[in-house]
Amino acid sequence: MKIFSQILALLGAVLLLNACAASKSSEGSGLTPTIYYKPTIQLDKNKCSSASLRDLLSPEGRVLTTLCDSDYAQCLLQGSCLIDDQGLLTSYNYHSTKDGLARFIVTDTKACPFGYGVSNACLDPYFSAAADLKIYKLGDVIYIPRLVGAKMPNGEVHDGYIVIRDAGGGVKGAGRFDFFTGYLDHRNKKNTMARLGFGDPKNRIEYRVVRGEEAARARERRGFPGLKKSILEEQQE
Question: Count of CB atoms within 10 A of residue 61's CB?
């Protein structure tokens, strides 16, 4: 009986080690978060000198609009921006780089109110993130317990599921995610995800990668690669 008990104890230890290894392979020491957003920029060329103006170019090289350097840098850094020209709103999205210059496109706010991620996947505030697409695939889903039950600024209560819809130059490695928070940056006190620590890359937040039917249901709830109907209706009102 003593030998049998020892065997059972050994098997239990092996199973525990395997479980820990499986957990570490999907979660590691927790995800490393940052936040990105879509800035709204008041078009005012008089707030900077003519030498500090930059053209926002289309893929064909056509001038879409002209911005001050600082505003241009924000559009490029965040990957998209909303330009307010005396009440006329135009949404721009980074498209590509050609001849060393960033190129942008005008986005259809009826189809994708917050702009596009990768492969024209619509950005979904508080429910989407950018990741390293050498490790993750477009449409992969992660589950974050910290988000469950949290009320987002748009009124939605989070279910903890985040869909990968985008990539970013500084988003590299397993467990590294950049969370999209609509028009609110990480400094805004109304940004629930920022208050929960998702704007600080020093934080390590528990998560797991979701597969199979669980992931498929999460994508369906959010309307991936588009957006769920209620979000589109809200933006068109």
Answer: 11
Burial of 71 (0-12, 13-18, 19+ CB in 10 A): buried
Domains belonging to the chain, first-starting first, are 29-37+114-236 (2.40.40), 40-106 (no CATH)
Kindly state the tokens that stand for 131: 């990741």
Amino acid letter, 192: T
- What are the mean pLDDT values of the chain's consecutive 10-residue runs (237 residues total)? 40 37 53 98 92 96 97 97 96 96 96 95 98 98 98 97 95 98 97 98 98 98 93 69
Residue 109 backbone phi and psi in degrees, to 5: -70, -15
* Cβ neighbours for 111, distance < 8 A, ≥ 6 positions apart: 122, 226, 232
Q: How far apart are CA 116 and CA 108, in angstroms?
A: 9
Which own/partner contact pairs does 136-140 have at CB distance under 8 Å and 24+ positions apart? 136/164, 136/209, 137/164, 138/164, 138/165, 138/225, 139/163, 139/164, 139/165, 139/219, 139/224, 139/225, 140/164, 140/209, 140/215
* DSSP-assigned beta bridge partners for residue 80: 93
Q: 67 by DSSP, 3-state: which?
A: strand
